[in-house]
């Protein structure tokens, strides 16, 4: 199915990027980063416009963040409690909540691109914990801009080696996420002893 979606990027470029980044910011398993790498590569080949591809990806990501924030605001703490109780999302939601409690708007910024697996959960929790909308939006827009520029830019710069860049980006993101989990668990253990 992913190959089919990637084949649609040069045909429906902007729309695929907009919808893909929107859905990925709502915690749906959409390979938005790979879509952006692919769009960057197609832009380098002249099949897509670089600025409109990046703009569509950015618009979708910001809209997804705002939707997640609004869902969190409407669902409030009962939503966060339900997410924590779920076996598949519980630990990730707790990590996102701890990061947001400690770092506020900086956590929103960093979870857009550096610790992106936590991003959708920070959206929900930010709304539920009544983080100010303007502060949330500032962190969201800045972080999503970095995310889009990095991935579309890498796709554009390394169009000939897109598979290698995608693998390296996934490995790096996984390494950062594992490092964040290790630091959080280490701090938790240190505090308990």
TrEMBL record:
Identify the residues that the record assigns to the VTT domain, covering every copy. 30-155
Q: Where in the cell is it found?
A: Cell membrane
- Reading the lineage from the top rank, the first entry is Bacteria
A Pfam family the protein falls into? VTT_dom
What keyword terms does UniProt attach to this protein? Answer: Cell membrane, Membrane, Transmembrane, Transmembrane helix
What GO CC terms are in its UniProt record? plasma membrane
**PANTHER family associated with the record:** ALKALINE PHOSPHATASE LIKE PROTEIN, UNDECAPRENYL PHOSPHATE TRANSPORTER A
Q: What is this protein called?
A: VTT domain-containing protein
Membrane topology term reads:
Multi-pass membrane protein
Q: Which residues cross the membrane?
A: 12-30, 42-63, 118-138, 145-166, 172-190
Q: Is Transcription regulation found in the keyword set? A: no
* Major localization class: membrane
